[in-house]
Description:
The chain is mainly α.
Amino acid sequence: xxxxxxxxxxxxxxxxxxxxxxxxxxxxxxxxxxxxxxxxxxxxxxxxxxxxxxxxxxxxxxxxxxxxxxxxxxxxxxxxxxxxxxxxxxxxxxxxxxxxxxxxxxxxxxxxxxxxxxxxxxxxxxxxxxxxxxxxxxxxxxxxxxxxxxxxxxxxxxxxxxxxxxxxxxxxxxxxxxxxxxxxxxxxxxxxxxxxxxxxxxxxxxxxxxxxxxxxxxxxxxxxxxxxxxxxxxxxxxxxxxxxxxxxxxxxxxxxxxxxxxxxxxxxxxxxxxxxxxxxxxxxxxxxxxxxxxxxxxxxxxxxxxxxxxxxxxxxxxxxxxxxxxx
Length: 327
Ligand SMILES: [Zn+2]
Ligand SMILES: [Zn+2]
């Protein structure tokens, strides 16, 4: 290890003591992160995130940006451990806030493939976009895909996999994650149709030669289901863990499948425990209803793929980014 590699990637002052929560860091930063999750004593920064001597808020943001990620290792339901559950949700909420911030405010230079993104288990490097940066449909699709990839990449189950398994998992999950976030946003805005943050429609209302009913299915079906169930932010976060830790995806090795099933069990038990705590007797029904959202995600993705194939038959896709090219 060179001296730079052995430094803590959070404080950059002390020697790292190895990987903790998925990131190379020192003992003090490791303890800091754990306490922050369990005590949740993170006030906002007095210098709006620009303080010289890092405050607790800024230090915690640094942990989140570096991809520090906590997963309860035990079966939460058996232990009835609510502290672990709320620490897990708190961690995911901050990762999701960062995803939203990057979606709205950042751009990405370059055009990597999913395999290239999967090669390293470090977060993607986004840069702040200038106010006059032209956002068109292609840019929105690209940044939505990349911020979804970046969010998924930080899960511990993704970091446990080898590069090849990580590639397959990300490749078959990130688009579903993207449409799930689009639908949650539509719901939060009280809209029935999926749109990007600036109001651009994800799928056009009319495509020559295609039935309106088919297009409306893509535009509205998932958002309608999320709205009907009134999926909360916490439920969305737990579902994002359960759904995108699928051991049944093609291409994943035997050992990779083992890792994914172990984690999927933990995430599923976290969701069930959340439902039981929040909804008491109707908890089990709520749990089943929430899991059923995955079918709607899958159906929507299949319809979009069909639309995409139709469009590419009609003419070669212009400047399609590499993360969307499936071979
Ligand atoms: Zn440190
Ligand atoms: Zn600060």
